[in-house]
Design goal:
42% helix, six-stranded mixed β-sheet, alpha+beta, globular, five-stranded mixed β-sheet, 420 residues
Amino acid sequence: MVEYSRYRLDNGLTLIVNENHDTPLVTVNILYCVGSRNENPNRTGFAHLFEHLMFGGSKNAPDYDLVVSRMGGENNAFTNTDITNYYLTFPAEYLEEALKLEADRMVNLILSERSLEVQKRVVTEEYNQRYMNQPYGDSWMLLRDLCYEKHPYKWCTIGADIRHVQEATLGDVKSFYDRYYRPGNAIMAVAGNVDTSKVKELVERYFGGIPDGKEREYFDGKEPEPQENRRKVVERLVPATAIYMAWLMPGYKCRDYYVCDLLSDILSNGQSSRMYESLVKRQGLMSEVTAVITGEEGPGLFLVKGKLNDGVNIEDAERAIVAELECLKNEPVSEIELQKVKNKFENTFVFSQYKAADCAANLCYYEWLGHIEYVNTEPEQYASIMPSDLQRVARNIFMENRSRTLIINPMGEEENEKTD
């Protein structure tokens, strides 16, 4: 059981504190409610660019990493479609210094032409290495554009076009900072060897005077219900043909999100899963196959992806995937098979509570979700799912007119379908 205290400062900052005196460490985790979904469609990639800029130093700590190193700490961050998350873990005696450090970069971040140009080059290099210069690297860029018509999930966090980042001005990034890096758009969790009253006092001292700033913008586009399937076939420098089949699914705040999570595990969690047994071992159609969910607040994706063995026809592989989905629709999953995947989730959940860093991240995430109590009760969401729920959701989601299919062929390989 994770015990926590929750506070809200006058400037809108949400503070959550978890005391755990079994560890000598403390983690400060700050979640900013900004991801690629908040970007202007003509100015994408800014949330991810800003993740890099936040490590460039602030007024009272020009070298952020040096300060962290002197504390014996470690730090990192990530950006996704919905949020940007930062954490700093350190020995408990440096609590005040750590909070001063994080407060300073919330309000006094150094933004200069030089720092911007450096990070623009870093992001461009990341784009080239991760998306352009490795096999299947641009698959998610192709998929998101194929699967979404209007919603800002249509582009990856790196951006819809890397030129949006390359052409960013200092005024652009300062405006982004003022709008999203403000107390009312942030959730902070402090977990580990701390005293709650002391944490609250220090947070009030260093964060309480920061003005809340501008209201955030939200460039939303309500995603229309799919009416017909969509396909895209491309050629790339890849070793084998890959197939990606995706369907829109409910977001975090819907109970059916958890049903989809279990469906993905039933299909591909481990070598005893349905698709691995059938498509890899028994039929020999693929060298690997997985089912995953993207896990987003809005309409996410349920994705089945696999790499075909040599000589396998793409139509045969696609039919085999559809057959496994039809089985879920037509035959209830057994209680034993369902309990197996529920147990796997519960084990993972329990282990995610032990480290201060994981606990702090979870507290921020569930608070952002609007259900902080899930930090203790999320397994109940899975425990309540019945075989009839799996069958109902499978029937609602895995419809032919809702499917989005991407085929990536090796360069020069003949394909019956026209290549885009």
